[in-house]
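Much of what follows relies on a compact textual record of a protein's fold. Each token is a code from a learned vocabulary of local backbone shapes. The record below shows the convention in full.
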Amino acid sequence: MRKTACRSKIDTQESLKYNQAMKSKHIVSVLGCFVLMLSGCAIADFRPYSGAQQNWPTAPGAFMETNNAVPTYFGPPSRPYEVLGYLDATTAPIRRRGVVRFAASRAKQSGGDAIIVLQEGSQYVGTYSSGSAYTSGSANGYTSGNTFYGRGTATTSYSGNSFPMFAGRASVIVIKFKP
């Protein structure tokens, strides 16, 4: 009986080591999948303006950023301009804070001198969920004829995570300053 009890203790220790290793592997795999999923693409839909140019609104001052590919205005600029088109930008969740920077980059590629931000924010795009379970057990006892006499134990461990995902969204007007 003593030998069986020692074996049970060893089985339990091995089980715990295996369980901890599985948890570590699970965490690494979840983080790896999460990073791969979130580092996806960014999309920009450009719609050119069609029609006669107007005397578009200007203002004596506006909030702006100058650290993007083109100047980024959060209101009408002070100089006269022409509207080249409307740009709707969407970025992957991991890049959602850079959606205006992405829109400015696309505006420059479209020939724009600046952008006017109409709307900036985020949009729920889904939930990433992952989980795993591990069960280990051991039994000790003896048989007498066709009957088994003994005790057994089982342990189940579960680990799971869920993360909401939000993509970056921005709507901007692409403009070209008049000479």
Summary: The beta strands are 43-48, 64-65, 72-73, 81-91, 114-144, 147-177. Confidence is low (pLDDT under 50) at residues 1-10, 33-39. The longest strand covers residues 114-144. DSSP finds two helices and six strands in the chain.
